[in-house]
Amino acid sequence: MALKHADPGQVIDLTPYGAALAQKQSIALFKSEDLEVMRLVLLAGSAMPSHDVAGEITIQCLEGSIEISADGATHVLYPGHLMYLAGRAPHALFALEDASVLVTVALKRS
Amino acid sequence: MALKHADPGQVIDLTPYGAALAQKQSIALFKSEDLEVMRLVLLAGSAMPSHDVAGEITIQCLEGSIEISADGATHVLYPGHLMYLAGRAPHALFALEDASVLVTVALKRS
């Protein structure tokens, strides 16, 4: 994950990496009081095993395609597709093609 | 705003409306425990006057272009650009072209 985070009001470029994707890594875009936003890079055939986070999340496919398994169902997200999941919902990702994905997490305050 | 909201785990299509945009309206995609997500439609020349919400937000341009004024600065968002703003940060939107915009709001619990 990158160390330099975006500030409020800063323009963050999420246009597709395209041919450069294979050289990219997953980055944390920012983590602030209420939200954490990251851009994950998953190369074709790679998986993120089932896991969960405390808060609700949205997962948006920016390029490529990914399979999401959650709530006993599996769906494929293509560019421009978004899904949200309840907090503590286990979910697994599998990249069908080289993909980058925007993940937004609602942070829970204790 | 549409009355039928998406459920967790459902695929939500955010691909550009394109030529159909002028016939579209802003819709609430879902509002759940931690997050509220909507897709706003702003036709060229239309504005959303300065306002603020309690929680942090992200604003992502899906198509067209919009000018965002916040924190004393004005930026233009083009497709694939995202910005986040702190809770209670006043912001105004102005559509430079017909645009649709994804807005994610972190809900504050009292």
Properties at a glance:
10 strands; mainly beta; 50% strand; four-stranded antiparallel β-sheet; 110 residues; five-stranded antiparallel β-sheet; homodimer; Jelly Rolls; globular
Layout of strands and helices, then pairs:
2 copies of one chain form a homodimer.
Chain A: E1 12-13, E2 27-31, E3 35-42, E4 47-51, E5 57-63, E6 66-70, E7 73-77, E8 81-85, E9 91-95, E10 99-106
Antiparallel strand pairs in A: 2-3, 3-10, 4-9, 5-8, 5-10, 6-7, 6-9
Verbal overview:
The structure is a homodimer of 110-residue chains. The first copy, chain A, is globular. The two termini of chain A are 25 Å apart. Chain A has 110 residues and is mainly β. In chain A, strand 6 (66-70) and strand 7 (73-77) form a beta hairpin. Chain A contains no helices and 10 strands. In chain A, the strands form 2 sheets. The first copy, chain A, has a 5-stranded antiparallel β-sheet with strand order 2-3-10-5-8, with no helix packed on it. Chain A has a 4-stranded antiparallel β-sheet with strand order 4-9-6-7, with no helix packed on it. Chain A has one domain (24-106): Sandwich (Jelly Rolls), CATH 2.60.120.10. At the A-B interface, strand 1, strand 5, strand 7, strand 8 and strand 10 of A face strand 1, strand 5, strand 7, strand 8 and strand 10 of B.
